[in-house]
Amino acid sequence: MSISNVTSPVQLRAEEGPGQPVPTPELEELYRGFERELLVPLWTEIGDLMPLHPQSKARPHLWRWRHLLELADRAGQLVPVGRGGERRAIALANPGLGGKPYATPTLWAAIQYLMPGEDAPEHRHTQNAFRFVVEGEGVWTVVGRDPVPMNRGDFLPQAGWNWHAHHNATDRPMAWIDGLDIPFQYANESQFFEFGRDAISDAEKTTPQRSRSQRLWGHPGLRPVSQPGPRQGSPLLAYRWADTDAALTDQLELDHEGFPGVVEPGHAAVRYTNPSDAGDVLPTIRTEMHRVARGTQTTPTREVGSSVYQVFDGSGVVSVGDSSWSVTRGDLFVVPSWHSLSVKSEAGGSDSDSGALDLFRFSDAPVFEKLGLHRVETTA
Amino acid sequence: MSISNVTSPVQLRAEEGPGQPVPTPELEELYRGFERELLVPLWTEIGDLMPLHPQSKARPHLWRWRHLLELADRAGQLVPVGRGGERRAIALANPGLGGKPYATPTLWAAIQYLMPGEDAPEHRHTQNAFRFVVEGEGVWTVVGRDPVPMNRGDFLPQAGWNWHAHHNATDRPMAWIDGLDIPFQYANESQFFEFGRDAISDAEKTTPQRSRSQRLWGHPGLRPVSQPGPRQGSPLLAYRWADTDAALTDQLELDHEGFPGVVEPGHAAVRYTNPSDAGDVLPTIRTEMHRVARGTQTTPTREVGSSVYQVFDGSGVVSVGDSSWSVTRGDLFVVPSWHSLSVKSEAGGSDSDSGALDLFRFSDAPVFEKLGLHRVETTA
Amino acid sequence: MSISNVTSPVQLRAEEGPGQPVPTPELEELYRGFERELLVPLWTEIGDLMPLHPQSKARPHLWRWRHLLELADRAGQLVPVGRGGERRAIALANPGLGGKPYATPTLWAAIQYLMPGEDAPEHRHTQNAFRFVVEGEGVWTVVGRDPVPMNRGDFLPQAGWNWHAHHNATDRPMAWIDGLDIPFQYANESQFFEFGRDAISDAEKTTPQRSRSQRLWGHPGLRPVSQPGPRQGSPLLAYRWADTDAALTDQLELDHEGFPGVVEPGHAAVRYTNPSDAGDVLPTIRTEMHRVARGTQTTPTREVGSSVYQVFDGSGVVSVGDSSWSVTRGDLFVVPSWHSLSVKSEAGGSDSDSGALDLFRFSDAPVFEKLGLHRVETTA
Amino acid sequence: MSISNVTSPVQLRAEEGPGQPVPTPELEELYRGFERELLVPLWTEIGDLMPLHPQSKARPHLWRWRHLLELADRAGQLVPVGRGGERRAIALANPGLGGKPYATPTLWAAIQYLMPGEDAPEHRHTQNAFRFVVEGEGVWTVVGRDPVPMNRGDFLPQAGWNWHAHHNATDRPMAWIDGLDIPFQYANESQFFEFGRDAISDAEKTTPQRSRSQRLWGHPGLRPVSQPGPRQGSPLLAYRWADTDAALTDQLELDHEGFPGVVEPGHAAVRYTNPSDAGDVLPTIRTEMHRVARGTQTTPTREVGSSVYQVFDGSGVVSVGDSSWSVTRGDLFVVPSWHSLSVKSEAGGSDSDSGALDLFRFSDAPVFEKLGLHRVETTA
Fold this sequence. Notes:
Four copies of one chain form a homotetramer.
Chain A: H1 25-36, E1 39-41, H2 46-49, E2 61-63, H3 65-78, E3 89-92, E4 108-114, E5 119-125, E6 129-132, E7 137-143, E8 146-151, E9 155-158, E10 164-168, E11 174-180, H4 182-188, E12 193-195, H5 212-217, E13 222-224, H6 241-257, E14 267-272, E15 286-292, E16 301-303, E17 307-313, E18 316-320, E19 323-327, E20 332-335, E21 341-345, E22 357-363, H7 365-370, E23 376-378
Antiparallel strand pairs in A: 2-20, 3-4, 4-11, 5-10, 5-12, 6-9, 6-11, 7-8, 7-10, 14-15, 15-22, 16-23, 17-20, 17-22, 18-19, 18-21
């Protein structure tokens, strides 16, 4: 086989440069030999392959929620949901990633939309997933036949290889965001997918206010004696907004009283955790909710790995690397690997308004922590 | 040194028996030689030392709460609380353990009593401890300067080496039970103790409804981003009854609806866990709350290690080994190692009464699990 | 920003197909809207993005050692080693991976070549690396200033972020293979690189037969009391062939005597492990040596993740997916994710020849095991 | 039940003292009430129960090997080995522990003796055990039907619940020491015991130079691919003296060359580890070999938990707490919890003699480390 069969071969050239050999006909001949044998030397590639620090292909970028919602609404009218297409989900395609539906090199982020009365069919996959609801209500996600309500502020993890479907029980459409590790599993070729039932049962179309998983696992510091060991992927299928809001409020009040708990002054944050092992809620994805009090600017920080944020409430200014945007509810933005992030909430606001900027975040940090590759640095 | 200097020496005798040598003058002389050199042969001791299964020195025993309370109340009048004595705590002394204040070979259980306005002085120790409140209110336990309210049904862990004091903020006495690993640490000689301040500050005598630890760690499935790693001993300093009760109610309702979650039909149970690692709330002590629905008998079960139970609510009949007692609120009983336990709640009861039997339990199971020595067996 | 700025955008088309919407002008308009907003729908991409099982972009492929060695030898004459180019390493470029120097989507494999008296300059990087010597001797790799000899059959791990250089102390060139997680870290954007000293000291140019790391960590079942905890990446810097050979010989003899230990009859295998935690020798890379006894065919097996093999000794036939090759000493081949592998050693051979086929293997399995994504299946 | 039924009751007395109530008739009456209800107050016991630091009941003590050996030899003539007595083992009885066969509160240490041609019958127990050979040879311990040779310097772990027997294949008696966690499991009531076959088979009476376990697990840094996970208790059944000696020699040479590795100058030490998880060789017992170079005095150190040492070679002076002894080959001594230990090897010695003092050590440290109770302190 000659290398000419290969897509986009690296055409080796004898170039001048630090540590490069002198171009000669013999060197050209050697490089042709490499190509014939499907070989590439390190010395011509090392600058790109082994940079001094991460050089993300992804770019900082902002997607406006109102644009996403308009397009999703239009898709609701034109595109059916059913077996084959599986979900009416529309993904963020980072402008640095060649038009692929990747928010970052490892993470998928999409708006999903379900019309009144619609169901999305059951399937399962090794990709780890979650839903987060920035506004709206009325859909129950049915996980392992357990109907789980979805309401504004709720975070719903969906660990790999669990059967799941969705059901809109109301007469109004509902949108939310999905986060998955599709790009990571695609690049690493670890993914499996299985179709389930085309329709869920009537028993699964009930609309309880609390899922069975919440009833078993949603009590603070308590676990069922019948379930003693760790489980891969959280057995708690929804983290309700009332709890998250209370935790953030408590942190800021402790900060105000002079006690520790916040990440930094005026900046509260909670991490969603798997109650069976206290680790990240999904094996490959970390999820958090941050609250930046009125008039606060967070310390610029960069870390290995990428994040996607969605503004849950409030407004402010976000700076990622050299980019900067004013953001408001629902807007999504990407922080590529080793790009500095700082967030500034609004200084003003009426008395009846908390003025806080609430940011939902997900990232690929668990991958790097488990493999000993994580680094964080404040860049102030 | 001759063995006669030694307390209670084993007087070796040349006895007949399986695997025993024939008694002769030479053998007697050998045994005298062993004694001189502070030696003991295995072959005469193996039956006691290495039994076929655990032969607990502890005995099943029941202590009546009303008797404990009367004596504690009397102690409140006669015995001051202060530096030196440290606590007005009165411990259960298992009748098999030689009069020592040991509920079991590893566990200490005591009733503690604090008079109106009294404080117990600050100290810390490596012994892991907890409080459980079967009735009453008005005391705040001050842990690391964080005042933690104590109310009926609350469970309050107190991991080793944390500073702590108690403060009765009301005009009524209050009693509760303490559980510690004093016998375990005493036998294994691992204990340290340090005196703290004789008096806590006014700021620590405030009476908040929620401790700072609860505000940081008491939200289900959420942890502060500022506190990412595991902590030895739970950072959550109180598990409130409302949560425990809801969790048990949920389990029995799931059971009633045909879904899994209970330990066995009619028998719900939750384990108190450390939210920083999802393991047992204390390194050496496991704690649980069990609810046995009206008219239910639990499957006889025995396990390695010992437990102490307190009836939190309801009444019923408890069988431990060959013993059996009718029990009611506050009563405490001991289950020695490898003794079978079965519990039967009352069958009748008025409609307004749930009829359930609620049992608080603590045991030394974490020790055996971590050392690979745990066994459980149903004996039905 | 319009999507036309983006490299290789996915041009969305309204196509017919299962689960696809009916093509209409309105749908085309919607898809144009997606492109403007940098969005891609799931329903057109799901078949590729979320396949039923891994569909590796990599292809099974074989590289002949004699060709690699000829080209490396020629590079030794034409290409200097020094700062900037760093190493005279020539990488396998899988024909399915677009000409990139990737053996598989996650793994780099290269032949490295050092001329008589040459040094490769010191550097460090987060990429995890190892060397394996199929033939030759005379180079010492200097890791953290500890000179480690490299001889036929030796395996030398080089965990991320350790300083290292190489020194050829002889008058003959030497070649070996390097394995790294460059593609994995490149895709996931976690890599850091730092230049060290241009020249190592005379003390580091000594040529001990045993490295200091081997003297500390190379004793079976023993560890220095001064080094009690786990270390990320093995502190043992060389696994010598004599030990590996003895372990494989022992396994086959146990098999012959009827005792367990081999992977399957006639197939012995050892895994190189980190003696500080008994896990894989590198956080992202698993390495093993397999010995297939004369006339044995291994059970076809496939697993998630990819492997690279080098024939260390013997000859036989290897089948990977639909490909099959006769292989001999030094040949390298790739097993892409979820491709079945079976190996057959030669049946004949002279009496003086063991006839066994020895295969060195490295894979990305630790990544998948740590993230809960590993699967293995025999496909017989 | 009245407390008079109880063995050795604590007779509570109204005493004067810090924190003690004023003795009055009412107080006496209260104390009588406690006794009736099987209760003991904390305030009279706290000084003993919760001391400022461990106050070991065990005493430092030395047993001379020549005395042990003489008595064991005499027992060899008078006491048969067989079912019921099980083993001809003679245990150290610490003079502070009431004549019980306990070297320390948690550890058993005994000399075991097997006459020419004798077998000790098969059994198994949850107690973790090991053998260490200070001199002699000729016995094979048969563990899980695998005959394991025992020679001078060999350390042979025997994790709980493995079947084992012993076989003397020679015409000479052999002695060695046994270490077990009998006192720990006795106090904590976790022990099970089961009788096996009275006689082992002829196949088990073979006398291989290497056990099957050594052939599978005795290769440095290598593990069988067929045995991927951790195992409770080491699967390696013998750690041979040649390896231990080489590791200690290497450490002292590295020290001499100016490189790290020793515990402190002139003091080398290795820990026996489980090759399946790199942790302690037994779940409850840590074992180490220390070598103190000629003319070296070790830094006084104390730690939580107790140790037993046997002099393997050389001679010197040992100081434990306030005791001090000259020791020589085979002598055994005890270091109680939180007692300072320092060892001094001989300064002189002939040129042909290394002059080093080799000390085998076992301790209960894993118990305390797993439960968060371990502390070490140098007391220089």
